[in-house]
Design a protein that fits this description.
alpha/beta
Length: 241
Amino acid sequence: MIDVKDLWKSYGSFHAVVGITFSVARGEVVGFLGPNGAGKSTTMKILTGSLLPTAGSVKVAGFDVVENSLEARRRIGYLPEHTPLYADMTVKEHLNFAASLRGMSSGRAKERIDAVVSQTDLGPKWRAPVKTLSKGYRQRLGIAQALLHEPELLILDEPTVGLDPNQVVPVREIIRGVGRERTVILCSHILSEVEATCGRALIINEGRIVADGTPRDLASGLGVATLEEAFRRLTAAGGAA
């Protein structure tokens, strides 16, 4: 589903991403982890076609994100870290607007909007203005919008940052549900989130992949009890597992 080969992103003499290579199979739910400034969001922006790489290649469902950007992006749903929403629209208006941008017919739009509203439990806020929504409901709306066109790949960048515990649980359940149907990349620095939702974790530090495996295997391979301990050791040392 995703094939990344020798990917670089440089800004002058600073290298944000340093020759990383990895692949993700269809149906995998993968956590992409790293400390602040490690290169997580840069990599996700390249995957979604919103940032050009300096070198290397990225393919999504067989389409190069530079050479066949439109075809690749059609297969991706993306929730960036700071969810871009129109505050003066209602939830209903926002999803209808998103469907129109996707070129959906009225019948198809209604079908898909009904499906994502049910999937994300947005019904109670259907007519509420976006500006009145809690952070948890804003994240649900962002996920609903990302799922609207039934993408093969869903990329979520820090989907639970800033949520209180009561808001995290339903968003986590939505991610688990989505992961039963499609490929998911969860970009996060919240280790408990990855352990709860992902079958595999990639850890990036200083622009390089330093570990790749199941949360349990990464921990046991370093002789520690948890993914959090493994993460601290790998990102402190910058070593590889």
